[in-house]
Amino acid sequence: MKKVTFPNSNNTTITMAAVINYPEGFDGSQQYPAIVVSHPGGGVKEQTAGTYAAKLAEEGFVTIAYDASYQGESTGEPRQLENPHIRTEDVSAVIDYLTTLPYVNKARIGAMGICAGAGYTANAAINDRRIKAVGTVSMVNIGQMFRNGWDNNVKDRDAIPYLQAGSDARTSDASGAEIVTIPMAPLNEADAPNEELRQAWEYYHTDRAEYCTAPGFATARSLNQIITYDAFHKAEAFLTQPLQTIVGSEAGSKWMSDNLMERATTTDKNMHIVNGANHMSLYDGEAEISEAVGVLAPFFQSKM
């Protein structure tokens, strides 16, 4: 494992921070298949993304888990900007970096993500043909989630107040006032509307997985981009790469993975359901991660 930094090729004023994991017996004179791992909204590379990256490296891959622009140890202002278009571009920027490494096989690069990071990964694959295979875990299409709700029970047009809130936040930010923020998961246990999101609070704000560079909020101005964003835009035409989705049978977010499975044009697509798992247990549950990696590793080995 090695911590690295590199300029973001989409915006060279931003320095990306990442961790590269190497397979056992790594030989820098050889070439290896590589996997980019993207973290959830509000997360950082030291949490679930780093766990999956380390586990997949044990299966023979070079893996890289990174902090999104404006987040974690990556640079960029304002801090905690969650612009989904930039986060999608970050995936390709990390691939740009991987292609400069002599031990990475440029023809065998895959990508996966967890939660919103999975949605960003799917969007990146629609745009970037260098991604040869796509894996998702507890996928969230962040635009769908924010405008339609966790349970998909809110109509698009009813999300207009969120657009107004994002617009108002931009005006406030421009005045020089303190940056307006929104929670990415419940900031307090009492704010959680259900058990699954209570576990999201627990993951990010207790010793279960809290990390100093993951404060759990985003800039409110991000709402202007999030509400109108569709991570699966044009998947019907351009998501032709092999696709492996992994979801918990009890996950409230499963409908978003179902939606990508329906929309992706690729005929090489499969959903693996982890029985008894919810959205959050696939972040750090030992048995759940083992099952997920047991599906992802052979998928990436055979599809890229």
Give a brief rundown of this model.
The chain is α/β, with parallel strands linked by helices and 304 residues long.
| CATH C-level class | Alpha Beta
- Overall strand count: 10
Counted by DSSP, the helix tally is: 11
Outline the low-pLDDT stretches: none
The total tally of domains equals: 1
Shape: globular
Portion in helices? 25-40%
C-alpha termini separation? 23 Å
**What gyration radius follows from the Cα positions, in whole Å?**
18 Å
Largest sheet, described in full? 8 strands, mixed
Oligomer: single chain
Tell me the fraction of residues in β-strands, as a range.
Answer: 15-25%
Mean pLDDT comes to 98
Architecture in CATH?
Answer: 3-Layer(aba) Sandwich
Strand order of the largest sheet: 1-2-4-3-5-6-9-10
CATH superfamily: Alpha/Beta hydrolase fold, catalytic domain
SSE-based structural type:
alpha/beta
N-to-C series of helices and strands: EEEHEHEHEHHEHEHHEHEHH
CATH overall fold name: Rossmann fold
Considering the chains and any ligands shown, give keywords for the structure.
eight-stranded mixed sheet; 22% strand; 11 helices; two-stranded antiparallel sheet; 304 residues; Rossmann fold
Walkthrough of the structure:
- The protein is an alpha/beta fold and 304 residues long.
- It has one domain (2-151, 230-303): Rossmann fold (3-Layer(aba) Sandwich), CATH 3.40.50.
- 36% of the residues lie in helices and 22% in strands.
- It has 11 helices and 10 strands.
- The strands form 2 sheets. The protein has an 8-stranded mixed sheet, with helices on both faces. The chain has a two-stranded antiparallel ribbon with strand order 7-8.
- A hairpin with a 2-residue loop joins strand 1 (2-8) and strand 2 (11-21).
- The mean pLDDT is 98.
